[in-house]
Amino acid sequence: MKRRTLLATGAGAAMAAALGLPARAQDKTKVGFIYVGPINDGGWTQHHHHSALEMVEHFGDAVELVYQESVPEGPDAERAITQMARGGADIIFTTSFGFMDPTVNVAANFPDVKFEHATGYKQADNVSVYSARFYEGRAIQGTLAGRMTKTNKIGYIASVPIPEVIRGINSAYLHAKKVNPDVEFKIIWIFEWLNPAKEADAAKALIEQGCDVVLQHTDSTAPHQAAKEAGNVYTFGQAADMAEYGPMPRISSIIDNWAPYYIERVQAVIDGTWTSVNTWDGIAPGMVGIGEISDAVPADVKAEAEALRDAIAAGEYHPFTGPINKQDGTPWLAEGEIANDGDLAGMFFFVEGVEGDIPS
Amino acid sequence: MDINPILLLAALMVASTPILLAAIGELVVERAGVLNLGVEGMMITGAVCGYIVGHGTENPYFGFVGAAFAGAALSFVFAALTQFLLTNQVATGLGLTMFGLGLASLIGQGATGSSDLIVGKLNLPIISDIPVIGRILFQHDPIVYVSLLLVAGTWWFLSKSRAGLILRAVGENHDAAHALGYNVRLMRVLAILFGGACAGLAGSYISLVRVPQWIDGITSGAGWIALAIVVFASWNPWRLIAGAYLFGGVTVLQLNLQAEGLKIPTEYLSMAPYLATILVLVVIRAGRAPGSLGKSFHPSS
Amino acid sequence: MFKLEKRPQPSKVWTFGAPILAVVLTIILGMGLFAILGKDPILATKVIFWDPLFGEFADLDRPDVIKKAAPLILIAIGLSFGFRAGIWNIGAEGQYIIGAITGAALALSFYPMEARWLIFPLTILFGALGGLVWAMIPALLRVYFKTNEILVSLMLVYVAEVLIKAMAIGALRDPDGFGMPGSRDLRRFASAANPDLITGSGIHLGVVAALLSVVAAYIALTRHQFGFDVRLAGQSPRAAAFSGVNPSRLILVCMAISGALAGLAGVFEVTGPSGKILGSFPTYYGFTAIIVAFLGRLHPVGILLAGILLALTYIGGNLAEQSLGLPAAAIKCFQGLLLFSLLGVDLLTNYRIKLRSKGKAQ
Question: Is C45 part of the contact surface with chain A (CB cutoff 8 Å)?
């Protein structure tokens, strides 16, 4: 099923050799990545790329990596994926929700190529979907935030109003409330995933309004910088560990770790055992990493958070366990009831106690 | 209410500084009769160059100077094309933005990171401690005051100095200015270089003070807002401050109101400054725009 | 020292020679850029300009070039009338976005009704009308309040960009989309879809409209009173006024044409290649089309070629990214260089360069 690549034709190959590009052996597995942002965005895309490089390191010469960065969602994505598929890629990871329809469309034209779409819900015979249960990490952040705040005001920089972000807010709120009934969440939507200037402004506004813990669902380190400048404010790394801001203001983090999944899936292609799957992994298999809880956190709080992490990893505890009411007071989960994945996937409501509306 | 109006006003000054800096440069350019739509491109080039120079020398002030030079260098491309090769200013400016965004991204590929350079804050013995006013006005970094001084200087230059008079004459009617023996082209090239330097400085303020880090695309449209403010201010330096603080203020206020939990239609609030600008344009009528704005000049005609 | 002397008539030779010189110049500059980045300059140039049209996978690339070029050409043709007459609508991006919104909103209001004969024409019409209305704001303000249309139309781009982001998560959000931003996919709504006329060819109705606009513009400019008025107004507003051209009417008509065509491009895009109203929908076609209009020297045939050339740099640029690892940013720089040299050499068409002899009066 190997297609000739653009470079492998006549003069092209000679030039590639002259350039010192690796010659393309026919038995190499070609792995493609389509990124929504630049590979050095410090957040989402950078972590997919890091995980991709880790995967390459794992396989060494057995795989060849191709990628295209800053691909806009929409028709350009469809073209980029097509170019990659016909360029001989054996498996292509498309790493943004907005690539869902383009991925499914292209996959229909290339039945021999395997596709893996991150954060979507449309599967096909040659399209898998994968996503991470970041809300598990949010539960730990919420616990730490509830314990650490002195002003009882917790700031939350939210990106785009979609279920994943709303799940995160709900999970963090429920767990902060559990350890500190007086907490109040202040939420700012910036409607973008990465906009350092706006994130910095949002963090400053939250801090000026008395928040001494700032959670973020945006990708840049700008909020940490603002917190560092302000002094007594705690933050959490997002996507990356952002350890350079520890032990203060960064006291822990949620780390996107896609590498084990990428290695597993590429291995399946090499072995010829690849089948379409729907993966939604959390802390247990390591897809959601919890960054080291820093020394700025008192030992008992740290132990409490780590116990929660371990309980979630062991499957003993689910962050959305009833009783939980919706924001308007209507019951959602009864005592002891655990949310099903369908409800979680489409979650578009705040839980009781969160103030403000979801923008729409 | 958790909004602290004193802190809000202080934050507003910082948030508005980059757009004010870029706008003051563009104002001078437009008063000379040139429309440079490449502000965003020059700004982001300034942001990356300022970041790299600042970190290379471990001195943010060298970074600011380097950024101003980088912005001016890029604006020279625009000057050469529009003034000597008589290209259309609108198209050249758009091209400059495209080129600048690409160039900055290329230059900055290995430089992504956050800035640990410290830009000191003003701390005057008595003045900075005055209640309310001290916090709002006198506890900022030096560039905030540089931007205000630039506004004052520009006002003085345009309305009091002879060179400023010539610059305005060139902008109002380049043929008449040429007939009077003034060097239209030289005046315009200098204005464009000044505009580029200001845009570069504005960019480095974002990458070295306000955020502070370098990431691809960090200016995220601030250069376009600067263009809007110049119009909003109807080419008057003092009004530029009001315009910049209005645009910057809406952003900061909108974030604060959200944090307050008020249900505000964020999107409509973000439109408001642009609609206000159009309203201002209508109210002031056309007479105030420099007469030769956007037109090419060739001395032989 | 050199001196420029205005030619009484644009040079025939340089009208055709200058663009060729510019492309050669860009390729030389671009090769320098690619070489600095450590890529084979000849190979990179080949991948960008040759492969999308004649390379191994050209069958798949040509449709993409066509799809990318069509909206650029359609918008640029609309702009060219105004630009010739000295009316500067630089807000085509906004009109393009609004056209997409109004068209999509109309189509979705009928969802899921099956009546293509009614819904599709109405969708297209509403798209064109949306763009037209958006362009009428700066036009009417210019006519009645003498405001600068460059600035008003630019401001309205920002407003349109905010509006489409709000629509994508608000009024037009797909109710079955699991809470994700973006409207329903119009390509999957048979009554409003604008698919390829021949599957896989890249030729959808928007492409047909773009070609028709080129022909219509050519006829209007060369055979029609309107084209004459436009050219006269651009060369000498006073002469135009004497010969009975109503400047206000000219402004309104030129802005209406450019707005409607930009709106059309928007609605063909949202019902075709794009499919959805998304926050990332603004694809800068509106701004890029300004560049296309100038590259094509405001001439319909020139615009056609310029649109294809620019589309080529996008498609070829993406190819170079994947196959050579050329950074996306390098392609942007390259496009900037292309524009600079094309604009720069234009001088040769209208001016003669003379060596100024020292000490002697000319």
Answer: no
Q: What's the pLDDT band for B1 if we cut at 50, 70, 90?
A: low
Fold match, A10-132 / A134-255+289-345:
yes
A66 to chain C: which residues are within 8 Å by CB? 322
Give pLDDT tens digits for B18-35: 999 999 999 999 999 999
pLDDT in tens, A170-226: 999 999 999 999 999 999 998 888 888 889 999 999 999 999 999 999 988 889 989
**What is the residue type of A148?**
M
Give the pLDDT confidence of A222-259 residue by residue, as tens digits. 899 899 988 889 999 998 888 888 788 999 999 989 99
**Residue C204 reports pLDDT greater than 80:** yes
Asked if B281's CB is within 8 angstroms of C151's CB, the reply is yes
Does B294 fall in a domain?
A: no
Nearest neighbour of A360 by CB, restricted to C38, C170, C279: C170
In chain B, residues with a C-beta closer than 8 Å to the C-beta of A196 are 211, 213, 215, 218
CATH code of the region A134-255+289-345: 3.40.50.2300
Compute chain C's Rg from CA coordinates. Answer: 22
Lookup: tokens for B37: 């739509």
Element (H, E) at A92: strand A91-94
Closest among C272, C155, C158 to C207, alpha carbons compared: C272
Compute the half-sphere exposure of residue A322: CA atoms within 13 Å on the CB side of its CA: 14
B178, two tokens:
């040429």
User: Residues for chain A: how many in total?
Assistant: 360
- CATH fold, domain A10-132, is Rossmann fold (3.40.50)
Alpha-carbon gap, residue B288 to B290, rounded angstroms: 6
The answer to whether the Cβ–Cβ distance between C6 and B301 falls below 8 Å is yes
Cβ neighbours of B222 in A, within 8 Å: 197
Per-residue pLDDT tens for B217-234? 888 888 988 988 898 888
8 A C-beta contact, residue C131 and residue C262: yes
How much is the pLDDT for C357? 54
Measured over all CA atoms, what is the biggest interatomic distance in chain A, rounded to whole angstroms?
71
- Domain layout of chain A by residue ranges: 10-132, 134-255+289-345
How far apart, in whole angstroms, are the C-alpha atoms of residue C4 and residue C351?
Answer: 6
Domain range for B61 is 5-115+135-288
How many other C-beta atoms can be found within 10 angstroms of the C-beta atom of residue C305?
16
Q: pLDDT, tens digit, for every residue of B127-137?
A: 777 878 887 88
Q: Which of A174, B296, A166, B179 is nearest to C346 (CA)?
A: B296
- B22 in C contact zone (CB under 8 Å): no
Query: What confidence tens digit (pLDDT) does each residue in C51-106 have?
Result: 898 888 888 889 999 999 999 999 999 999 999 888 889 899 999 999 999 999 99
Query: Minimum mean pLDDT among A99-113, B239-253, C340-354: which range?
Result: C340-354
Q: Which residue of C has its CA nearest to A345?
A: C178
Q: Per the structure, how many domains does chain B have?
A: 1
Domain of residue B184, CATH code: 1.10.3470
Please tell me if residue A161 touches chain B, with a CB cutoff of 8 Å.
no
What distance in Å separates residue C117's CA from the closest CA in chain B?
36
Nearest chain C CA: its distance from B293 CA (Å): 10
Query: What average pLDDT score do residues C341-353 get?
Result: 81
Domain boundaries, chain C: 69-303
What pLDDT does B195 receive? 97
A29-34, strands of its sheet edge to edge: A63-68, A29-34, A91-94, A114-118, A127-132, A278-281
